[in-house]
Amino acid sequence: xxxxxxxxxxxxxxxxxxxxxxxxxxxxxxxxxxxxxxxxxxxxxxxxxxxxxxxxxxxxxxxxxxxxxxxxxxxxxxxxxxxxxxxxxxxxxxxxxxxxxxxxxxxxxxxxxxxxxxxxxxxxxxxxxxxxxxxxxxxxxxxxxxxxxxxxxxxxxxxxxxxxxxxxxxxxxxxxxxxxxxxxxxxxxxxxxxxxxxxxxxxxxxxxxxxxxxxxxxxxxxxxxxxxxxxxxxxxxxxxxxxxxxxxxxxxxxxxxxxxxxxxxxxxxxxxxxxxxxxxxxxxxxxxxxxxxxxxxxxxxxxxxxxxxxxxxxxxxxxxxxxxxxxxxxxxxxxxxxxxxxxxxxxxxxxxxxxxxxxxxxxxxxxxxxxxxxxxxxxxxxxxxxxxxxxxxxxxxxxxxxxxxxxxxxxxxxxxxxxxxxxxxxxxxxxxxxxxxxxxxxxxxxxxxxxxxxxxxxxxxxxxxxxxxxxxxxxxxxxxxxxxxxxxxxxxxxxxxxxxxxxxxxxxxxxxxxxxxxxxxxxxxxxxxxxxxxxxxxxxxxxxxxxxxxxxxxxxxxxxxxxxxxxxxxxxxxxxxxxxxxxxxxxxxxxxxxxxxxxxxxxxxxxxxxxxxxxxxxx
Length: 619
Fold this sequence. Notes:
This protein is of the alpha/beta class. The chain contains 21 helices and 19 strands. The longest helix is centred in the C-terminal third of the chain and has 20 residues, at 466-485. It starts with a helix and ends with a helix.
Protein backbone atom coordinates (compact mmCIF):
# COMPACT_ATOMS: atom_id res chain seq x y z
CA UNK A 1 0.00 0.00 0.00
CA UNK A 2 1.38 3.41 -0.94
CA UNK A 3 1.95 6.09 1.67
CA UNK A 4 -0.90 8.09 0.19
CA UNK A 5 -3.28 5.11 0.26
CA UNK A 6 -2.30 4.40 3.86
CA UNK A 7 -2.99 8.01 4.81
CA UNK A 8 -6.35 7.82 3.05
CA UNK A 9 -7.29 4.65 4.90
CA UNK A 10 -6.62 6.29 8.25
CA UNK A 11 -8.30 9.59 7.41
CA UNK A 12 -11.84 10.19 8.70
CA UNK A 13 -14.52 10.38 6.05
CA UNK A 14 -15.07 14.05 5.18
CA UNK A 15 -18.57 15.44 5.42
CA UNK A 16 -19.97 17.18 2.34
CA UNK A 17 -19.89 20.94 2.14
CA UNK A 18 -22.99 22.60 3.52
CA UNK A 19 -23.73 25.52 1.18
CA UNK A 20 -24.33 28.96 2.66
CA UNK A 21 -23.87 31.00 -0.52
CA UNK A 22 -23.36 31.49 -3.26
CA UNK A 23 -22.40 35.14 -3.39
CA UNK A 24 -22.99 36.27 -6.98
CA UNK A 25 -21.90 39.73 -8.12
CA UNK A 26 -21.60 41.65 -11.36
CA UNK A 27 -18.32 43.40 -12.06
CA UNK A 28 -18.57 46.29 -14.49
CA UNK A 29 -15.67 48.09 -16.14
CA UNK A 30 -16.70 51.38 -17.76
CA UNK A 31 -14.65 53.47 -20.18
CA UNK A 32 -15.67 57.04 -21.01
CA UNK A 33 -13.83 58.94 -23.75
CA UNK A 34 -14.82 62.51 -24.66
CA UNK A 35 -13.14 64.90 -27.11
CA UNK A 36 -13.85 68.45 -25.95
CA UNK A 37 -13.27 71.86 -27.48
CA UNK A 38 -12.69 74.53 -24.83
CA UNK A 39 -11.92 71.87 -22.24
CA UNK A 40 -9.77 74.22 -20.13
CA UNK A 41 -11.93 77.27 -20.64
CA UNK A 42 -12.91 78.24 -17.06
CA UNK A 43 -16.50 78.62 -18.23
CA UNK A 44 -16.64 75.08 -19.65
CA UNK A 45 -18.13 72.43 -17.34
CA UNK A 46 -16.94 69.16 -18.95
CA UNK A 47 -13.86 68.73 -16.77
CA UNK A 48 -15.54 69.83 -13.57
CA UNK A 49 -18.51 67.50 -14.17
CA UNK A 50 -16.19 64.58 -14.95
CA UNK A 51 -14.63 64.99 -11.48
CA UNK A 52 -17.83 63.51 -10.08
CA UNK A 53 -18.35 66.02 -7.28
CA UNK A 54 -14.79 65.84 -5.92
CA UNK A 55 -13.85 68.69 -3.61
CA UNK A 56 -10.10 68.05 -3.46
CA UNK A 57 -7.68 66.82 -6.15
CA UNK A 58 -4.22 65.40 -6.47
CA UNK A 59 -3.07 66.64 -9.89
CA UNK A 60 -0.23 64.70 -11.50
CA UNK A 61 1.46 66.17 -14.57
CA UNK A 62 3.67 63.96 -16.74
CA UNK A 63 6.49 65.96 -18.30
CA UNK A 64 8.76 68.87 -17.47
CA UNK A 65 6.19 71.67 -17.40
CA UNK A 66 2.89 72.15 -15.63
CA UNK A 67 0.35 73.44 -18.19
CA UNK A 68 -0.64 76.93 -17.12
CA UNK A 69 -4.07 76.56 -18.74
CA UNK A 70 -4.83 73.68 -16.36
CA UNK A 71 -3.83 75.70 -13.29
CA UNK A 72 -5.89 78.65 -14.49
CA UNK A 73 -8.90 76.38 -14.92
CA UNK A 74 -8.56 74.77 -11.47
CA UNK A 75 -8.00 78.12 -9.77
CA UNK A 76 -11.22 79.37 -11.37
CA UNK A 77 -13.12 76.34 -10.04
CA UNK A 78 -11.75 77.00 -6.54
CA UNK A 79 -12.80 80.66 -6.79
CA UNK A 80 -16.27 79.57 -7.87
CA UNK A 81 -16.56 77.31 -4.81
CA UNK A 82 -16.66 74.08 -6.82
CA UNK A 83 -13.31 72.86 -5.47
CA UNK A 84 -11.81 73.23 -2.02
CA UNK A 85 -8.25 72.86 -3.28
CA UNK A 86 -5.72 70.80 -5.17
CA UNK A 87 -2.08 69.78 -4.99
CA UNK A 88 0.12 69.35 -8.08
CA UNK A 89 2.94 66.84 -8.57
CA UNK A 90 5.13 66.82 -11.67
CA UNK A 91 6.54 63.46 -12.69
CA UNK A 92 9.30 62.95 -15.25
CA UNK A 93 8.63 60.46 -18.02
CA UNK A 94 9.26 56.99 -16.59
CA UNK A 95 11.49 54.36 -18.17
CA UNK A 96 9.54 51.32 -17.07
CA UNK A 97 6.22 50.10 -15.65
CA UNK A 98 5.32 51.56 -12.24
CA UNK A 99 6.28 49.75 -9.07
CA UNK A 100 4.34 49.27 -5.86
CA UNK A 101 6.85 51.62 -4.22
CA UNK A 102 5.73 54.40 -6.58
CA UNK A 103 2.09 53.55 -5.90
CA UNK A 104 2.65 53.82 -2.15
CA UNK A 105 4.44 57.17 -2.58
CA UNK A 106 1.56 58.57 -4.64
CA UNK A 107 -0.94 57.26 -2.10
CA UNK A 108 0.96 59.10 0.62
CA UNK A 109 0.89 62.29 -1.49
CA UNK A 110 -2.87 61.90 -1.92
CA UNK A 111 -3.37 61.62 1.83
CA UNK A 112 -1.18 64.69 2.36
CA UNK A 113 -3.36 66.57 -0.15
CA UNK A 114 -6.46 65.63 1.85
CA UNK A 115 -7.90 63.48 -0.94
CA UNK A 116 -10.75 61.53 0.63
CA UNK A 117 -12.94 58.73 -0.58
CA UNK A 118 -15.19 61.00 -2.67
CA UNK A 119 -12.35 63.10 -4.08
CA UNK A 120 -10.32 62.45 -7.22
CA UNK A 121 -7.03 62.23 -9.08
CA UNK A 122 -6.42 64.31 -12.19
CA UNK A 123 -3.73 63.13 -14.61
CA UNK A 124 -2.37 65.40 -17.32
CA UNK A 125 -0.47 63.35 -19.87
CA UNK A 126 0.18 59.68 -20.50
CA UNK A 127 2.95 57.10 -20.54
CA UNK A 128 4.39 54.88 -17.84
CA UNK A 129 4.60 57.71 -15.30
CA UNK A 130 0.90 58.26 -15.84
CA UNK A 131 0.32 54.53 -15.36
CA UNK A 132 1.67 54.89 -11.80
CA UNK A 133 -1.04 57.42 -11.00
CA UNK A 134 -3.78 55.31 -12.61
CA UNK A 135 -2.64 52.23 -10.68
CA UNK A 136 -2.69 54.26 -7.46
CA UNK A 137 -6.22 55.46 -8.18
CA UNK A 138 -7.36 51.89 -8.90
CA UNK A 139 -5.95 50.66 -5.56
CA UNK A 140 -6.36 53.57 -3.12
CA UNK A 141 -9.24 52.75 -0.76
CA UNK A 142 -10.11 49.98 -3.28
CA UNK A 143 -11.01 52.52 -5.96
CA UNK A 144 -10.61 56.27 -6.28
CA UNK A 145 -12.03 58.38 -9.06
CA UNK A 146 -9.49 59.41 -11.71
CA UNK A 147 -9.69 61.61 -14.81
CA UNK A 148 -7.00 61.69 -17.50
CA UNK A 149 -6.43 64.66 -19.83
CA UNK A 150 -4.48 64.09 -23.04
CA UNK A 151 -3.52 66.70 -25.62
CA UNK A 152 -1.89 64.78 -28.47
CA UNK A 153 -3.02 61.89 -30.63
CA UNK A 154 -0.45 59.26 -29.52
CA UNK A 155 -1.28 59.92 -25.86
CA UNK A 156 -5.02 59.81 -26.57
CA UNK A 157 -4.69 56.51 -28.42
CA UNK A 158 -2.54 54.99 -25.67
CA UNK A 159 -4.93 56.16 -22.96
CA UNK A 160 -7.97 54.67 -24.68
CA UNK A 161 -6.27 51.36 -25.43
CA UNK A 162 -5.03 51.04 -21.84
CA UNK A 163 -8.38 52.00 -20.30
CA UNK A 164 -9.79 49.35 -18.00
CA UNK A 165 -6.44 48.09 -16.73
CA UNK A 166 -3.58 49.73 -14.84
CA UNK A 167 -0.21 48.08 -15.41
CA UNK A 168 2.45 47.45 -12.78
CA UNK A 169 5.98 46.09 -12.94
CA UNK A 170 6.60 42.35 -12.81
CA UNK A 171 3.72 41.39 -15.04
CA UNK A 172 1.09 42.61 -12.57
CA UNK A 173 -1.94 44.74 -13.32
CA UNK A 174 -5.23 45.75 -11.74
CA UNK A 175 -8.62 46.25 -13.34
CA UNK A 176 -9.96 49.80 -13.34
CA UNK A 177 -13.65 49.98 -12.64
CA UNK A 178 -14.02 53.39 -14.29
CA UNK A 179 -11.77 55.06 -16.87
CA UNK A 180 -12.33 58.69 -17.84
CA UNK A 181 -10.31 60.09 -20.76
CA UNK A 182 -10.78 63.73 -21.81
CA UNK A 183 -9.11 64.82 -25.05
CA UNK A 184 -8.13 68.49 -25.17
CA UNK A 185 -9.12 69.17 -28.79
CA UNK A 186 -7.91 72.79 -28.77
CA UNK A 187 -4.35 71.78 -27.85
CA UNK A 188 -4.36 68.81 -30.19
CA UNK A 189 -5.51 70.71 -33.30
CA UNK A 190 -3.02 73.54 -32.87
CA UNK A 191 0.03 71.26 -32.74
CA UNK A 192 2.06 70.36 -35.85
CA UNK A 193 1.32 66.94 -37.32
CA UNK A 194 4.32 64.69 -36.59
CA UNK A 195 5.19 61.38 -38.34
CA UNK A 196 4.06 59.20 -35.38
CA UNK A 197 0.65 60.83 -35.62
CA UNK A 198 0.44 60.12 -39.34
CA UNK A 199 1.08 56.45 -38.62
CA UNK A 200 -1.67 56.46 -35.99
CA UNK A 201 -4.06 58.24 -38.32
CA UNK A 202 -3.53 55.54 -40.90
CA UNK A 203 -3.93 52.77 -38.33
CA UNK A 204 -7.20 54.30 -37.18
CA UNK A 205 -8.41 54.69 -40.75
CA UNK A 206 -8.44 58.48 -40.67
CA UNK A 207 -5.94 58.85 -43.55
CA UNK A 208 -5.96 56.72 -46.66
CA UNK A 209 -2.74 54.75 -47.25
CA UNK A 210 -0.32 56.20 -49.76
CA UNK A 211 -0.04 54.53 -53.19
CA UNK A 212 2.61 51.84 -53.29
CA UNK A 213 5.74 53.20 -54.95
CA UNK A 214 9.37 52.05 -54.96
CA UNK A 215 10.25 54.94 -52.63
CA UNK A 216 7.31 54.51 -50.23
CA UNK A 217 9.30 53.02 -47.34
CA UNK A 218 9.30 56.24 -45.34
CA UNK A 219 6.22 57.74 -43.67
CA UNK A 220 4.70 60.29 -46.06
CA UNK A 221 4.58 63.92 -45.18
CA UNK A 222 1.58 65.34 -43.33
CA UNK A 223 -1.45 66.55 -45.27
CA UNK A 224 -0.70 69.86 -46.89
CA UNK A 225 -3.32 72.13 -45.36
CA UNK A 226 -4.52 72.79 -41.80
CA UNK A 227 -8.08 71.94 -42.87
CA UNK A 228 -7.04 68.46 -44.00
CA UNK A 229 -5.05 67.98 -40.79
CA UNK A 230 -8.06 68.98 -38.72
CA UNK A 231 -10.45 66.66 -40.56
CA UNK A 232 -8.03 63.75 -40.29
CA UNK A 233 -7.54 64.25 -36.59
CA UNK A 234 -11.24 64.72 -35.98
CA UNK A 235 -11.93 61.47 -37.80
CA UNK A 236 -9.39 59.74 -35.53
CA UNK A 237 -11.00 61.31 -32.46
CA UNK A 238 -14.38 59.98 -33.56
CA UNK A 239 -12.82 56.52 -33.74
CA UNK A 240 -11.30 56.82 -30.27
CA UNK A 241 -14.50 58.13 -28.74
CA UNK A 242 -16.31 55.20 -30.33
CA UNK A 243 -14.05 52.79 -28.42
CA UNK A 244 -15.70 53.76 -25.11
CA UNK A 245 -18.06 51.29 -23.56
CA UNK A 246 -18.80 48.89 -20.71
CA UNK A 247 -17.57 45.39 -20.02
CA UNK A 248 -19.33 43.10 -17.57
CA UNK A 249 -18.16 39.94 -15.79
CA UNK A 250 -20.38 37.77 -13.62
CA UNK A 251 -18.49 36.43 -10.60
CA UNK A 252 -19.61 33.81 -8.13
CA UNK A 253 -18.22 32.71 -4.78
CA UNK A 254 -19.28 29.38 -3.30
CA UNK A 255 -19.43 29.61 0.51
CA UNK A 256 -20.02 26.70 2.83
CA UNK A 257 -18.86 24.34 5.57
CA UNK A 258 -16.75 21.26 5.05
CA UNK A 259 -14.87 18.93 7.36
CA UNK A 260 -11.33 17.57 7.09
CA UNK A 261 -10.63 20.05 4.34
CA UNK A 262 -7.15 18.61 3.69
CA UNK A 263 -8.14 14.96 3.76
CA UNK A 264 -6.35 12.88 1.12
CA UNK A 265 -9.13 10.30 0.97
CA UNK A 266 -10.73 9.88 -2.43
CA UNK A 267 -14.50 9.80 -2.06
CA UNK A 268 -17.44 10.57 -4.28
CA UNK A 269 -18.86 14.00 -3.53
CA UNK A 270 -21.14 16.53 -5.07
CA UNK A 271 -19.46 19.22 -7.14
CA UNK A 272 -17.82 21.92 -5.04
CA UNK A 273 -18.10 20.03 -1.75
CA UNK A 274 -14.35 19.44 -1.31
CA UNK A 275 -11.20 21.43 -1.83
CA UNK A 276 -10.16 18.84 -4.42
CA UNK A 277 -13.06 19.99 -6.62
CA UNK A 278 -11.47 23.42 -7.06
CA UNK A 279 -8.11 22.14 -8.27
CA UNK A 280 -7.05 23.17 -11.77
CA UNK A 281 -6.51 19.73 -13.34
CA UNK A 282 -3.00 19.70 -14.71
CA UNK A 283 -2.38 23.24 -13.51
CA UNK A 284 -0.16 24.89 -10.91
CA UNK A 285 -1.02 25.60 -7.27
CA UNK A 286 0.47 28.29 -5.06
CA UNK A 287 -0.57 27.68 -1.44
CA UNK A 288 0.12 30.38 1.17
CA UNK A 289 -0.32 29.08 4.72
CA UNK A 290 -0.41 30.75 8.11
CA UNK A 291 2.21 28.76 10.04
CA UNK A 292 0.35 29.06 13.36
CA UNK A 293 0.15 25.26 13.53
CA UNK A 294 2.91 22.85 12.40
CA UNK A 295 0.26 20.15 12.06
CA UNK A 296 -1.85 22.24 9.67
CA UNK A 297 1.24 23.13 7.65
CA UNK A 298 2.15 19.45 7.40
CA UNK A 299 -1.40 18.53 6.35
CA UNK A 300 -1.35 21.13 3.58
CA UNK A 301 1.98 19.83 2.28
CA UNK A 302 0.76 16.20 2.36
CA UNK A 303 -2.47 17.14 0.60
CA UNK A 304 -0.61 19.00 -2.17
CA UNK A 305 1.84 16.11 -2.60
CA UNK A 306 -1.06 13.65 -2.84
CA UNK A 307 -2.71 15.73 -5.56
CA UNK A 308 0.58 15.92 -7.45
CA UNK A 309 1.05 12.15 -7.06
CA UNK A 310 -2.42 11.54 -8.51
CA UNK A 311 -1.68 13.72 -11.51
CA UNK A 312 -4.10 16.49 -10.62
CA UNK A 313 -1.36 19.10 -10.31
CA UNK A 314 1.55 19.80 -12.61
CA UNK A 315 3.37 21.83 -9.98
CA UNK A 316 2.80 23.21 -6.49
CA UNK A 317 4.51 25.40 -3.98
CA UNK A 318 3.63 25.78 -0.29
CA UNK A 319 4.76 29.00 1.37
CA UNK A 320 4.41 29.30 5.17
CA UNK A 321 4.03 32.82 6.56
CA UNK A 322 3.90 34.07 10.13
CA UNK A 323 0.85 36.26 10.58
CA UNK A 324 1.37 39.68 12.10
CA UNK A 325 0.90 43.39 11.43
CA UNK A 326 3.98 43.62 9.21
CA UNK A 327 2.75 40.83 6.94
CA UNK A 328 0.15 42.98 5.19
CA UNK A 329 2.64 45.38 3.69
CA UNK A 330 4.26 46.12 0.36
CA UNK A 331 7.37 44.01 0.96
CA UNK A 332 5.52 40.73 1.44
CA UNK A 333 3.07 41.57 -1.34
CA UNK A 334 5.95 42.09 -3.78
CA UNK A 335 7.57 38.82 -2.66
CA UNK A 336 4.39 36.82 -3.28
CA UNK A 337 3.80 38.51 -6.63
CA UNK A 338 7.37 37.56 -7.60
CA UNK A 339 6.67 33.90 -6.80
CA UNK A 340 3.41 34.01 -8.75
CA UNK A 341 5.28 35.47 -11.73
CA UNK A 342 8.06 32.86 -11.47
CA UNK A 343 5.40 30.11 -11.45
CA UNK A 344 3.71 31.76 -14.47
CA UNK A 345 0.32 31.53 -12.77
CA UNK A 346 -2.65 32.20 -15.03
CA UNK A 347 -6.34 31.39 -15.52
CA UNK A 348 -5.70 27.63 -15.55
CA UNK A 349 -3.94 27.71 -12.16
CA UNK A 350 -4.97 28.40 -8.56
CA UNK A 351 -3.82 30.45 -5.57
CA UNK A 352 -4.84 29.02 -2.20
CA UNK A 353 -4.95 31.11 0.97
CA UNK A 354 -5.07 29.27 4.31
CA UNK A 355 -5.13 31.32 7.49
CA UNK A 356 -6.75 34.22 9.27
CA UNK A 357 -7.83 37.56 7.90
CA UNK A 358 -4.28 38.88 7.47
CA UNK A 359 -3.15 36.00 5.24
CA UNK A 360 -6.45 35.93 3.34
CA UNK A 361 -6.24 39.66 2.61
CA UNK A 362 -2.66 39.34 1.41
CA UNK A 363 -3.41 36.35 -0.84
CA UNK A 364 -6.51 38.04 -2.24
CA UNK A 365 -4.45 41.10 -3.13
CA UNK A 366 -1.94 38.90 -4.94
CA UNK A 367 -4.80 37.39 -6.96
CA UNK A 368 -6.16 40.88 -7.67
CA UNK A 369 -2.80 42.08 -8.97
CA UNK A 370 -2.42 39.06 -11.21
CA UNK A 371 -4.90 41.03 -13.29
CA UNK A 372 -7.78 39.18 -11.65
CA UNK A 373 -6.96 36.33 -14.03
CA UNK A 374 -5.69 33.70 -11.55
CA UNK A 375 -8.54 32.26 -9.47
CA UNK A 376 -8.09 31.78 -5.75
CA UNK A 377 -9.73 29.89 -2.89
CA UNK A 378 -9.91 30.89 0.76
CA UNK A 379 -9.72 28.43 3.64
CA UNK A 380 -10.18 30.58 6.78
CA UNK A 381 -8.63 29.08 9.91
CA UNK A 382 -9.94 31.68 12.38
CA UNK A 383 -13.45 32.54 13.47
CA UNK A 384 -12.96 36.13 12.22
CA UNK A 385 -11.95 34.69 8.86
CA UNK A 386 -15.03 32.47 8.65
CA UNK A 387 -17.51 35.18 9.62
CA UNK A 388 -15.95 38.23 8.01
CA UNK A 389 -12.65 38.20 6.12
CA UNK A 390 -13.21 34.92 4.29
CA UNK A 391 -16.53 35.65 2.65
CA UNK A 392 -16.24 39.25 1.48
CA UNK A 393 -15.08 40.76 -1.77
CA UNK A 394 -12.60 43.13 -0.14
CA UNK A 395 -8.87 42.50 -0.28
CA UNK A 396 -6.09 44.88 0.66
CA UNK A 397 -2.78 45.62 2.32
CA UNK A 398 -1.68 48.28 4.76
CA UNK A 399 0.31 51.29 3.58
CA UNK A 400 1.45 54.65 4.94
CA UNK A 401 0.35 53.58 8.42
CA UNK A 402 -3.25 53.06 7.25
CA UNK A 403 -5.07 49.75 7.47
CA UNK A 404 -6.13 48.28 4.10
CA UNK A 405 -5.29 51.52 2.29
CA UNK A 406 -4.42 49.76 -0.98
CA UNK A 407 -6.56 47.00 -2.42
CA UNK A 408 -9.71 46.22 -4.31
CA UNK A 409 -12.81 44.06 -4.59
CA UNK A 410 -11.93 40.58 -5.81
CA UNK A 411 -14.05 37.62 -4.70
CA UNK A 412 -12.56 34.12 -4.44
CA UNK A 413 -14.12 31.29 -6.41
CA UNK A 414 -14.78 29.51 -3.11
CA UNK A 415 -14.55 29.98 0.64
CA UNK A 416 -14.47 26.65 2.49
CA UNK A 417 -15.02 26.87 6.25
CA UNK A 418 -13.77 23.89 8.26
CA UNK A 419 -15.14 24.19 11.82
CA UNK A 420 -12.42 21.83 13.04
CA UNK A 421 -10.02 24.78 13.00
CA UNK A 422 -11.92 26.27 15.97
CA UNK A 423 -10.28 23.66 18.20
CA UNK A 424 -6.84 25.02 17.27
CA UNK A 425 -7.52 28.63 18.27
CA UNK A 426 -6.64 30.38 21.55
CA UNK A 427 -9.51 31.91 23.49
CA UNK A 428 -8.43 35.46 22.63
CA UNK A 429 -8.78 34.68 18.91
CA UNK A 430 -12.19 33.07 19.44
CA UNK A 431 -13.34 36.15 21.35
CA UNK A 432 -12.33 38.27 18.37
CA UNK A 433 -14.54 36.14 16.15
CA UNK A 434 -17.40 36.57 18.60
CA UNK A 435 -16.88 40.33 18.30
CA UNK A 436 -17.64 40.12 14.57
CA UNK A 437 -20.69 37.96 15.25
CA UNK A 438 -21.99 40.45 17.82
CA UNK A 439 -21.38 43.29 15.35
CA UNK A 440 -23.57 41.84 12.61
CA UNK A 441 -26.20 40.54 15.05
CA UNK A 442 -26.60 43.89 16.83
CA UNK A 443 -27.56 45.74 13.66
CA UNK A 444 -29.24 43.05 11.52
CA UNK A 445 -30.43 39.94 13.43
CA UNK A 446 -32.04 39.93 16.89
CA UNK A 447 -32.37 36.12 16.89
CA UNK A 448 -28.63 35.74 16.36
CA UNK A 449 -28.01 38.21 19.18
CA UNK A 450 -30.12 36.08 21.53
CA UNK A 451 -28.21 32.96 20.48
CA UNK A 452 -24.95 34.73 21.28
CA UNK A 453 -26.23 35.75 24.70
CA UNK A 454 -27.19 32.15 25.48
CA UNK A 455 -24.36 30.16 23.92
CA UNK A 456 -21.30 32.40 23.44
CA UNK A 457 -19.36 30.31 25.98
CA UNK A 458 -19.46 27.27 23.68
CA UNK A 459 -17.93 29.29 20.87
CA UNK A 460 -15.31 30.81 23.20
CA UNK A 461 -14.32 27.28 24.29
CA UNK A 462 -13.75 26.22 20.67
CA UNK A 463 -16.44 23.56 20.85
CA UNK A 464 -18.06 22.42 17.61
CA UNK A 465 -21.69 21.83 18.56
CA UNK A 466 -25.01 22.35 16.75
CA UNK A 467 -25.40 25.64 18.64
CA UNK A 468 -21.89 26.76 17.66
CA UNK A 469 -22.55 25.92 14.04
CA UNK A 470 -25.89 27.73 14.20
CA UNK A 471 -24.20 30.92 15.43
CA UNK A 472 -21.48 30.78 12.78
CA UNK A 473 -23.79 29.94 9.89
CA UNK A 474 -26.31 32.62 10.89
CA UNK A 475 -23.48 35.19 11.16
CA UNK A 476 -22.18 34.28 7.70
CA UNK A 477 -25.69 34.42 6.22
CA UNK A 478 -26.27 37.88 7.69
CA UNK A 479 -22.97 39.11 6.25
CA UNK A 480 -23.74 37.62 2.83
CA UNK A 481 -27.11 39.38 2.77
CA UNK A 482 -25.40 42.72 3.41
CA UNK A 483 -22.72 42.05 0.80
CA UNK A 484 -25.23 41.19 -1.90
CA UNK A 485 -26.99 44.51 -1.41
CA UNK A 486 -23.81 46.60 -1.78
CA UNK A 487 -20.91 44.44 -2.99
CA UNK A 488 -18.59 47.25 -4.14
CA UNK A 489 -19.47 49.68 -1.34
CA UNK A 490 -20.64 52.33 -3.76
CA UNK A 491 -23.06 53.19 -0.98
CA UNK A 492 -20.81 54.31 1.89
CA UNK A 493 -23.52 53.80 4.49
CA UNK A 494 -22.95 50.15 5.45
CA UNK A 495 -24.31 48.40 8.53
CA UNK A 496 -21.34 45.96 8.69
CA UNK A 497 -19.14 48.99 9.47
CA UNK A 498 -20.60 49.01 13.00
CA UNK A 499 -17.68 49.32 15.42
CA UNK A 500 -15.15 49.43 12.61
CA UNK A 501 -15.13 53.21 12.16
CA UNK A 502 -13.39 53.76 15.50
CA UNK A 503 -12.09 50.18 15.60
CA UNK A 504 -9.76 50.47 12.61
CA UNK A 505 -8.27 53.67 13.98
CA UNK A 506 -7.82 52.21 17.46
CA UNK A 507 -6.17 49.09 16.05
CA UNK A 508 -3.64 51.16 14.09
CA UNK A 509 -3.06 53.70 16.88
CA UNK A 510 -2.34 50.89 19.35
CA UNK A 511 0.26 49.49 16.92
CA UNK A 512 -1.84 46.31 16.94
CA UNK A 513 -1.64 45.90 20.69
CA UNK A 514 -5.40 45.66 20.30
CA UNK A 515 -6.42 42.71 18.17
CA UNK A 516 -8.87 43.46 15.39
CA UNK A 517 -11.87 42.03 17.22
CA UNK A 518 -10.90 43.82 20.45
CA UNK A 519 -10.61 47.16 18.67
CA UNK A 520 -13.98 46.58 16.98
CA UNK A 521 -15.52 45.79 20.38
CA UNK A 522 -14.29 49.11 21.78
CA UNK A 523 -15.60 50.82 18.62
CA UNK A 524 -19.01 49.21 19.13
CA UNK A 525 -19.07 50.36 22.75
CA UNK A 526 -18.24 53.96 21.77
CA UNK A 527 -20.84 54.05 18.98
CA UNK A 528 -23.49 52.43 21.19
CA UNK A 529 -23.01 54.94 23.98
CA UNK A 530 -23.06 57.81 21.45
CA UNK A 531 -26.38 56.46 20.17
CA UNK A 532 -27.75 56.54 23.72
CA UNK A 533 -26.44 60.09 24.30
CA UNK A 534 -28.00 61.23 21.01
CA UNK A 535 -31.37 59.70 21.86
CA UNK A 536 -31.17 57.16 19.06
CA UNK A 537 -31.08 54.10 21.33
CA UNK A 538 -32.86 53.41 24.63
CA UNK A 539 -30.38 53.17 27.49
CA UNK A 540 -31.50 49.65 28.59
CA UNK A 541 -30.91 48.34 25.06
CA UNK A 542 -27.45 49.89 24.99
CA UNK A 543 -26.76 48.30 28.36
CA UNK A 544 -27.74 44.88 26.97
CA UNK A 545 -25.18 45.18 24.16
CA UNK A 546 -22.39 46.38 26.44
CA UNK A 547 -23.16 43.59 28.88
CA UNK A 548 -22.76 40.95 26.18
CA UNK A 549 -19.40 42.38 25.13
CA UNK A 550 -18.21 42.31 28.74
CA UNK A 551 -19.50 38.76 29.36
CA UNK A 552 -17.65 37.51 26.29
CA UNK A 553 -14.46 39.02 27.71
CA UNK A 554 -14.07 41.79 25.15
CA UNK A 555 -12.89 45.30 26.09
CA UNK A 556 -15.29 48.24 25.99
CA UNK A 557 -12.65 50.90 26.66
CA UNK A 558 -8.99 51.56 25.97
CA UNK A 559 -6.65 54.31 27.20
CA UNK A 560 -6.46 55.53 23.58
CA UNK A 561 -10.09 56.60 23.91
CA UNK A 562 -9.39 60.20 24.83
CA UNK A 563 -12.47 62.31 23.99
CA UNK A 564 -10.48 64.83 21.93
CA UNK A 565 -8.86 62.09 19.86
CA UNK A 566 -12.14 60.29 19.17
CA UNK A 567 -13.86 63.55 18.23
CA UNK A 568 -11.05 64.44 15.83
CA UNK A 569 -11.24 60.99 14.24
CA UNK A 570 -15.00 61.32 13.83
CA UNK A 571 -14.79 64.73 12.16
CA UNK A 572 -11.69 64.07 10.05
CA UNK A 573 -10.61 60.48 9.38
CA UNK A 574 -14.01 58.77 9.50
CA UNK A 575 -15.69 61.54 7.52
CA UNK A 576 -12.93 61.54 4.86
CA UNK A 577 -13.27 57.77 4.46
CA UNK A 578 -17.01 58.04 3.97
CA UNK A 579 -17.07 60.92 1.53
CA UNK A 580 -17.28 63.97 3.78
CA UNK A 581 -19.69 62.84 6.52
CA UNK A 582 -19.18 60.19 9.23
CA UNK A 583 -22.37 58.15 8.58
CA UNK A 584 -21.60 56.49 11.91
CA UNK A 585 -23.37 53.12 12.29
CA UNK A 586 -25.35 52.82 15.51
CA UNK A 587 -27.86 50.26 16.76
CA UNK A 588 -31.41 51.59 17.00
CA UNK A 589 -32.65 48.44 18.69
CA UNK A 590 -31.25 44.92 18.97
CA UNK A 591 -31.15 43.52 15.43
CA UNK A 592 -31.60 46.84 13.66
CA UNK A 593 -29.13 49.60 12.81
CA UNK A 594 -29.16 53.16 11.58
CA UNK A 595 -26.74 56.02 11.00
CA UNK A 596 -25.67 59.27 12.61
CA UNK A 597 -24.96 61.04 9.34
CA UNK A 598 -23.36 64.28 10.50
CA UNK A 599 -20.96 65.19 13.29
CA UNK A 600 -23.28 68.11 14.09
CA UNK A 601 -25.78 65.59 15.47
CA UNK A 602 -23.26 64.92 18.25
CA UNK A 603 -21.01 67.14 20.36
CA UNK A 604 -17.65 67.06 22.15
CA UNK A 605 -19.60 67.05 25.43
CA UNK A 606 -21.36 63.84 24.39
CA UNK A 607 -18.01 62.26 23.56
CA UNK A 608 -16.62 63.24 26.96
CA UNK A 609 -19.63 61.66 28.67
CA UNK A 610 -19.21 58.46 26.62
CA UNK A 611 -15.51 58.13 27.45
CA UNK A 612 -16.10 58.81 31.16
CA UNK A 613 -18.81 56.15 31.32
CA UNK A 614 -16.78 53.50 29.47
CA UNK A 615 -13.63 54.25 31.49
CA UNK A 616 -15.64 53.73 34.69
CA UNK A 617 -16.88 50.37 33.40
CA UNK A 618 -13.32 49.28 32.64
CA UNK A 619 -12.10 49.89 36.21
